[in-house]
Amino acid sequence: EIVLTQSPATLSMSPGERATLSCRASQSVSGSLVWYQQKPGQAPRLLIYDASNRATGIPARFSGSGSGTDFTLTISSLEPGDFAVYYCQQRGNWPLTFGGGTKVEIK
Amino acid sequence: HLVESGGGLVKPGGSLTLSCAGSGFTFSSYSMNWVRQAPGKGLEWVSSISGDGIYIIYSDSVKGRFSISRDNAKNSLDLQMNSLRAEDTAVYYCAGFETISVRPVDYWGPGTLVTVSS
């Protein structure tokens, strides 16, 4: 099983700041690495697939990078609606696994 | 696009069937998945079924107790849950996404809460 470790657990930021979220895998991810955003009481929303491709309708301030075992989600300038929990997921190996999440909160 | 139903309160050892109705996309062309989230916790993949229903896989935590099925003629997905345990308490999401040739759009339902308690 591929274990995904997200850091930090919580990120305290102000609107307009740049946020950098990390996802590290216990072994190389051979398939797709995706990122989700989840707000309270809502289902996850796909942001990034294949590590660096934005999903349909996702603004350009969201970007993903990385390969192998180290992946990053960057939000270039935080907007009020971006304060949420972010999860990475690997889809290359069974069982599919998620990281523990990073909460981006308002400072 | 997806709406779950069938959640509720069930006693340990009991059974429950969740259903998911799809609309607005080509249901049969998507692998369908169940993902759950325990209260205040992260996301956990439960089970997946291929678009044609041939390939099915479960997480170790539910294998032998849960059964996934789909009916493409009715755009529906089911999860039969038996021998339920307290640790199965969670919001269960029905989700359409691929693991190979990942598409730029996923489909998720709003979730249905399953509570296992005496």
Structure description:
The complex is a heterodimer of chains A (107) and B (118). Chain A is built from no helices and eleven strands. In chain A, 36% of the residues are buried. Chain A has strands at 4-7, 10-13, 19-25, 33-38, 45-49, 53-54, 62-67, 70-75, 85-90, 97-98, 102-106. Chain A is 0% helix and 50% strand. In chain A, strands 2, 4, 5, 6, 9, 10 and 11 form a seven-stranded mixed beta sheet that branches. Chain A has a four-stranded antiparallel beta sheet with strand order 1-3-8-7, with no helix packed on it. In chain B, the strands form two sheets. In chain B, strands 2, 4, 5, 6, 9, 10 and 11 form a seven-stranded mixed beta sheet that branches. Chain B has a four-stranded antiparallel beta sheet with strand order 1-3-8-7, with no helix packed on it. Chain B is globular and about 40 Å long. In chain B, 41% of the residues are buried. Chain A binds chain B through residues 31-32, 34, 36, 38, 42-46, 49-50, 53-56, 87, 89, 91-92, 94-101, and chain B through 33, 35, 42-45, 48, 57, 59-60, 93, 95, 97-100, 102-106, 108-111.
Supply database-style keywords.
A: 107 residues; mainly beta; four-stranded antiparallel beta sheet; globular; B: 118 residues; 0% helix
What layout of secondary structure does this protein have?
The complex is a heterodimer of chains A (107) and B (118).
Chain A lengths: L3 E4 L2 E4 L5 E7 L7 E6 L6 E5 L3 E2 L7 E6 L2 E6 L9 E6 L6 E2 L3 E5 L1
Parallel strand pairs in A: 2-11
Antiparallel strand pairs in A: 1-3, 3-8, 4-5, 4-9, 5-6, 7-8, 9-10, 9-11
Chain B lengths: L1 E4 L2 E3 L5 E7 L9 E6 L5 E7 L6 E3 L7 E6 L4 E6 L8 E7 L10 E2 L3 E5 L2
Parallel strand pairs in B: 2-11
Antiparallel strand pairs in B: 1-3, 3-8, 4-5, 4-9, 5-6, 7-8, 9-10, 9-11
